[in-house]
Design brief:
- There is one protein chain.
- With 460 residues, this protein is mostly helical.
- The chain has one domain.
- The protein is built from 19 helices and four strands.
- The strands form two sheets. The chain has a two-stranded antiparallel sheet.
- The longest helix has 25 residues.
- It is globular and about 65 Å long.
């Protein structure tokens, strides 16, 4: 992708602008204030779907929708601004897709944990990653894990998220004699979801910024109009929100994480599973976007890497304490880079834009799950594109089977942790059976033992 450099014809900044230029290294990185603002706006538009999708997912676990929306916006705003002023890189953070689904459908629905305890698990995994960053171990641990498994985790989460979207849209339902079957495509939920999915696909094809958000708004408009004509449909929609769209933010979830309740021996493997999933996403995202922005040095490292990883790690802890789920660097930051963003100034712009949604929580009650389902399906599609990076036709059987198990076990067992666990176990066993035990990393073998204990515990 061609990198834009807008500073060549810009006048030299002076006064406050000059200090900002030096602090964020705007001119030094070949950017301009205009490019940073444009990039920050583009990043916000492409990732703003999380404002509605995250509370929609977590509300399925019992967390209050309006309060979760506030926590989502606050955590994204604070952390993205912190990324800008401390790490000074053009990366935005928000609650991560996949981990929020694991909280709602894995920890709460499958394991029966209260959502407050599930958020305690997120806090502990964030603390674990923070300690790894502080000790300088995060990069070293990343080096021993096969890249194919990292890609497989992303693909598996994509399949899982898309499956959740199909269920929320009514396109898939429990079967009679089969686990699942075709839903009623003529239902209002299915029609609204399919219309939203079509809108997102068309807008994305035309490279319209904010395609996912616009798709949610489009399907919401259809659902609200349908509700106005027939009050029996979309029972979760509250049309009264239109008469009083503004209110003080609901902060009732902040500080309600049951941190002590999550500090139980039987949850150690779960914390590790979440940590590993969180672990993989950030490194790949940071390196990929850093390369696109031309920020990598000759060793393949981005500037202020320690600060970048520390903000991301603290984001997981803050997400647990705020009960918004783990915050992580978003791949949608690449949209801002494509618009010319090269510095943390773009992140500051993105973070401030998130704050604009703090006082609009009542409007969120107009958005049914059928309207956010298309976003889940489409984001799942985007994550599934990583399957081409695994290279099944090139890798050995151990790696291929491990990636295969990781991808399929997530949606099949409705659990991200189960997919990650089985993938590591299969990889270790297959390497041993192939006679490659001597080439197996001790770290991977140790992680596989922990996962084997976790799966045995879950089965019991």
């Amino acid at each position: 992708m061609e990198k834009r450099k807008d500073s060549g014809t810009s006048p030299r900044p002076s006064g406050l602008a000059e200090r900002l230029d030096r602090f964020f290294e705007v001119s030094a990185r070949g950017s301009s204030f205009e490019a940073e603002v444009r990039g920050g706006l583009a990043t916000f538009m492409t990732m703003s779907y999380i404002i509605f999708v995250n509370p929609a997912i977590l509300s399925a676990a019992g967390a209050p929708f309006a309060a979760t929306l506030t926590a989502t916006v606050l955590s994204a705003a604070l952390l993205t601004v912190l990324m800008g002023v401390w790490a000074r890189n053009p990366f935005a953070l928000a609650p991560g897709m996949g981990i929020n689904a694991f909280v709602a459908f894995g920890l709460v629905k499958a394991m029966g944990l209260p959502w407050q305890t599930a958020m305690g698990v997120i806090f502990w995994e964030g603390l674990t990653i923070t300690l790894l960053v502080a000790l300088g171990l995060r990069e070293r641990i990343m080096d021993v894990i096969p890249m194919e498994l990292k890609h497989a985790i992303s693909v598996g989460i994509g399949a899982f998220i898309a499956f959740i979207g199909f269920v929320e849209a009514g396109l898939v339902k429990p079967g009679s004699g089969t686990p699942v079957t075709l839903g009623r495509l003529s239902s209002p939920e299915a029609i609204v979801a399919l219309a939203g999915l079509a809108a997102i696909a068309v807008l994305w094809h035309r490279r319209v910024r904010g395609a996912v958000l616009l798709g949610i708004l489009f399907s919401t408009a259809i659902a609200v109009a349908w509700k106005a004509m027939d009050p029996r449909v979309f029972p979760t929609i509250r049309l009264t929100a239109l008469s009083s769209p503004l209110s003080l933010p609901d902060v009732s979830t902040i500080g309600r994480a049951d941190v002590l309740g999550a500090a139980r021996p039987e949850l150690v493997a779960v914390i590790i599973a979440v940590m590993l999933s969180d672990f993989f996403d950030t490194m790949g995202t940071v390196v990929g976007i850093g390369e696109q922005a031309g920020l990598l040095d000759e060793r393949g490292r981005i500037p202020r890497l320690y600060e970048t990883l520390m903000v991301d790690s603290l984001g997981a802890m803050l997400g647990g304490l705020f009960c918004s789920s783990s915050n992580t660097v978003y791949i949608e930051s690449a949209a801002g880079v494509a618009e010319g963003a090269r510095t943390g100034l773009a992140s500051v712009v993105t973070g401030l834009l998130f704050l604009a949604f703090l006082f609009t929580a009542p409007l969120a009650s107009l958005i049914p799950s059928a309207a956010t389902a298309p976003a889940l399906i489409f984001v799942g599609y985007l994550m599934m594109q990583n399957v081409s990076k695994i290279g099944f036709e090139k890798v050995d059987v151990a790696t291929g089977l491990a990636a295969f198990a990781t991808i399929l076990y997530m949606p099949y067992t409705y659990s991200i942790a189960n997919g990650i666990a089985l993938g590591f176990i299969v990889y270790t066993l297959a390497k041993i059976l192939q006679g490659d035990a001597r080439r197996l990393s001790p770290a991977i073998a140790a992680i596989s033992l922990v996962f084997a204990w976790y799966l045995a515990f879950a089965a019991i």
